[in-house]
Amino acid sequence: MSLSIGIVGLPNVGKSTLFNALTREQNAVSANYPFSTIEANHAVAPLPDERLARLQGWVGVQEAIQARVDFVDVAGLVKGAHKGEGLGNQFLGRIRHVDAIAHVVRCFDDENVVHVNAEPQPADDIAVINTELALADLGQLERRLEKLEREVKGDSKLGPQLEMARQVEAFLGAGEPLRNFAEHRHPDFLALDKDMRFLTAKPIIYVANIGEEGLNAGQAYLESARQIAAEEGAQLIAVCAGLEQELAGLSDDEREEYLSVYGLRESSLELLIRESYRLLGLISYFTFNESEARAWTIRRGWTAPQAAGVVHTDMERGFIRAEVIPFAVFEQHQDRNAIKAAGLLQVEGRDYIVQDGDVILFRFNV
User: Crossing angle of helices 187-196/159-173, nearest 10°?
Assistant: First the structure.
């Protein structure tokens, strides 16, 4: 499995610049006019995890394969997008299957970059996007309700699903995102969401796109966006997309030197990816063989057989045991045979809950 993130925002807030920086490629059109992105851009980026490189060195293999993050960048949304204004409405369906949403908010002034309003207004900009996502969900749900109301006449078992759909309709109609819906973990809601893929039910991270002048100091736009995120209980990450795009074209050593000039310890985009990972309750475990070390993505709380199934379904089906070395133990000894000789190799069965950073060898038979 991999983490997938949809990037949304008003036109010209820096979404495509951010996308290019995230993927370290120039895949997305980035231009100074609304709707320069008229097709959804898709790309895959590696999940930053310095533990994998260290494991690669300890076991002496040539290749390290990182876990991946899938990004989808869609056209900028404008007020009325849910009913056909602009181009963004055409692509909302492209992000219904992502795991989380990165909502890019413009928090910089630049007279050379056109904004849909006279000037950036983070509170209003955020409200426009959130409203359009809610109205898109509502429009889709209303069509589903019409169908359910017909179907329930011939199948009374659909009654609870219909009742849940009506509750969701009322909640969306009040302007609330489904992330705040009290019954969002109820089985009937989860079944409805599995079918509908509600946009406002997805976890959200606000990405405040700041200018270079805001890297080391607060500013009014950023604080406004931060306050909104805090009120919603959402995460906000400040990113200078222009700077990050410059960093994307540099070697690792050059990037480190460039960051130091700005007094930064790491790329903001690495933080964005890690926070998205955490938000969704995802962790990584590692495997290695004679040629490669590899990171795998699973959900926190998964058992060893479930984790094995990410590698191959046969490994889950024929699971026998997992030979587990916690990362801290591997770091201390740096050799599997030495760890085994010290009696620190854990032999775990089907009920073992995989921990973040575990180095695992699966035994299976099919």
Answer: 70
| Structural element, H or E, at residue 306 | helix 304-311
Render pLDDT for 89-133 as a digit per residue (tens, 0 to 9): 556 777 888 899 999 998 887 766 555 666 778 898 898 888 888
- Between CA 19 and CA 82 the distance in angstroms is 23
Q: Rounded distance, CA 224 to CA 121, Å?
A: 9
Phi, psi of 126 (to 5 degrees): -65, -45
SS3 of the chain: helix, strand, coil, percent, to 5: 45, 20, 35
The two tokens of residue 203 are: 């976890």
- Write the pLDDT tens digit of every residue in 164-220: 999 999 999 888 889 989 888 899 999 999 989 999 999 999 999 887 765 555 578
106 token code pair: 């413009």
Torsion, CA 269, CA 275, CA 276, CA 277, rounded to 10? 110
How far is Cα 163 from Cα 149, in angstroms, rounded to an integer? 10
Q: Which of 105, 107, 316 is nearest to 220 (CA)?
A: 107
What is the pTM for the complete model shown?
0.80
Alpha helical stretches, state H, 4-91: 15-23, 50-59
